[in-house]
Design goal:
31% of the residues lie in helices and 23% in strands. The chain is of the alpha/beta class. It folds into two domains: 7-438, Rossmann fold, CATH 3.40.50.12780; 452-554, ANL, C-terminal domain (GMP Synthetase, Chain A, domain 3). It binds 5'-O-[(S)-ethoxy(hydroxy)phosphoryl]adenosine (WTA).
């Protein structure tokens, strides 16, 4: 690991100034992620280097150089500015993984506005709560997703513009609708980038908690300092790499490491906007000679299921470094990847709120399959006692993960939700809400979440959101949503439902209710199963005890319920 130094060497004299220096940033100076992702790379003499190789359905391909990325993002920036979009306004990106999503993100940041990416599979209700909370002013989308926006636009007084990137000219535009056809308009060469500074808000990502509506995690332009250095040191992305991050920018991995990290490094990155198939993925790696691959455990388990023989049909010798994020990476997956690709997947742990990788297996470090690795240099991490929030000194003991606040990409606030934000800090530690132990060599071993949030295939689902959707159905009296085990996704969503008098819990009822909530939830949050029960376990104060239902699903001991009774 000579070019980046060993983990221990890096720990010794670490300071975030290392990243600031590499980025020519000095405190107090302007810092704009959009500029760093395009203009700066061109100024470094890499204008003609490929920034993005995109592949869509039916093998449709598009390539953009860094100069194209600079000009197209200028074009979107100018377009938004001409509409009257100002610094601080929230502009939502609601698209499949098409080039406009990546370019739009960079363009929005150049205007000083806040990019709010939302997963394109969201239904209108999921979309509504996030746009309403953010007071979003404009949304950029595709014609296939526009109907979902049209449906809720009247209820969103702040939403002034619905911008469609592939509008069909035969269809008349509504009063608030605009078109933006990037491929048939002149590109803007010179754009005055809004002077953003370290603490200027940049990105707003919505994430699910146990209670209440999803929370908008606010990041600032200074996050780049963490994202750049972790891309370089953890994901080991180098100048000549062909990088592939499989995550959708609707989620934080797809922005921190699917846009900001690779582009600010000036690497070439590939994007595939096609649904999962093991064969298509291997073909993609082979075709583009991908060298660094950042993916997720559910995908890896799906690849394992597709079998070893399939792997041998492709030349995957281009792969140099593999990393994973989002859910526990089981040791079998690490061992399997070493066997079939000749390289292990390096697990990385972090979350929307942390903005960048916090704990990981660092290149060159001994991997212990099943462990998340060690904290990134500059990150002070521990496990704390759940009652006193004091660090637990003994190795092997399970506690709650705690991080000392202050790294560059830490969230700055939950949008409009100071109380929930403050509750994430205990005894001077930021609490991500996960349980872990630390072994005698300082490796972290993930145990589970400390709340009822369900992590299905790497996507966090709030039981509250699913329960709320269920309760809107006229037949449903009460509901409790928990996880149940699954081979591929690790966890899937299961709903327990009690019905109002006069309704019968059978297959037909299940189907009707499923169809009802399908319109309200994203496909990821959909329950795999609804079980009808006569009543739900409750505390004396009447709170539903999800934990009892969950323990049953997982075949675990229910344990001492006397404490739960008073929860
Ligand atoms: C979980 C995704 C085990 C964890 C970047 C965390 C993990 C939540 C890992 C954040 C990992 C993430 N091993 N669990 N390597 N990485 N998680 O906000 O519960 O979508 O708090 O960010 O996913 O999910 P989020």
């Amino acid at each position: 690991m000579s070019h980046i130094g060993s983990y221990d060497e890096r720990l010794r004299d670490f300071s975030w100034e290392i990243s600031e220096k590499e980025l020519d940033y000095r405190p107090g100076k302007e810092i704009n992620i959009g500029w760093y992702c395009s203009d700066r790379i061109c100024l470094q003499g890499k204008a003609e280097k490929t920034a993005l190789i995109w592949e869509g359905l039916m093998g449709h391909e598009r390539k953009l150089t860094y100069d194209d990325l600079r000009k197209t993002s200028n074009t979107i920036g100018q377009y938004l500015r001409d509409l009257g979009i100002e610094a601080g306004d929230r502009v939502c990106l609601f698209m499949d993984k098409i080039p406009e999503l990546y370019i739009g993100f960079v363009g929005i940041l150049k205007t000083g506005a806040i990019a709010q990416p939302l997963f394109s599979a969201f239904g209108d209700e999921s979309l509504f709560v996030r746009l309403e909370n953010a007071g979003t002013r404009a949304i950029i989308t595709q014609k296939k997703h526009a109907p979902k926006v049209r449906k809720i636009m009247d209820k969103l007084p702040d939403l002034e513009y619905l911008i469609i990137v592939d509008h069909d000219p035969a269809r008349p535009l509504g009063a608030k609708e605009r078109t933006l056809d990037l491929w048939n308009m002149p590109w803007v060469d010179a754009f005055s980038i809004y002077p953003t500074f370290a603490e200027t808000p940049s990105v707003l990502h919505y994430t699910s908690g146990t209670t209440g509506q999803p929370k908008g995690v606010k990041h600032v332009h200074y996050s780049l300092i963490s994202q750049y250095l972790t891309t370089k040191w953890v994901l080991d992305v180098r100048d000549d790499d062909i990088y592939w991050c499989t995550a959708d920018p609707g989620w934080v991995t797809g922005t921190s490491y699917g846009i900001i990290g690779p582009f600010s490094m000036g690497a070439t990155q590939c994007v595939m906007d096609v649904g999962f198939s093991a064969e298509a993925w291997y073909k993609f790696i082979e075709k583009h000679r991908i060298t660094v691959w950042y993916s997720a455990p559910t995908a890896i388990r799906s690849l394992m299921k597709a079998g070893n023989e399939l792997v041998t049909r492709f030349d995957l010798s281009c792969l140099r470094h593999l990393a994973s994020v989002g859910e526990p990476l089981n040791s079998e997956a690490v061992i399997w990847s070493e066997k079939v690709f000749g390289k292990p997947f390096y697990d990385t742990y972090w979350q929307t709120e942390t903005g960048s990788i916090m704990i990981s297996n660092y290149p060159g470090m001994k991997i212990k399959p099943g462990s998340m690795g060690k904290p990134f240099p500059g990150i002070e991490a521990c496990v704390v006692d759940p009652k006193t929030f004091e660090p637990i000194p003994e190795s092997g003991k399970i506690g709650l993960i705690g991080f000392k606040p202050g790294w560059p990409s830490m969230m700055r606030m939950y949008w409009n939700n100071e109380t929930t934000y403050q509750n994430k800090f205990k005894n001077g530690w930021y609490m991500p809400g996960d349980r872990s132990s630390i072994d005698n060599e300082g490796y972290f071993w993930f145990v589970g979440r400390d709340d009822d949030v369900i992590n299905t295939g790497g996507h966090l689902v709030s039981p509250f959101e699913v329960e709320s959707a269920l309760l809107e159905n006229e037949m449903v009296a009460e509901s409790a949503v928990v996880s149940k085990p699954d081979d591929i996704n690790m966890e899937v969503v299961k709903a327990f439902v009690t019905l109002k008098p006069g309704f019968e819990g059978n297959k037909d009822t299940e189907l009707v209710i499923m169809n009802f909530i399908r319109k309200k939830l994203s496909p990821l949050a959909m329950p795999q199963e609804i079980e009808f029960v006569p009543n739900l376990p409750k505390t004396r104060s009447g709170k539903i005890m999800r934990r009892i239902l969950k323990a049953k699903e997982w075949g675990e001991e229910i344990g001492d319920t006397s404490t739960l009774e008073d929860d």
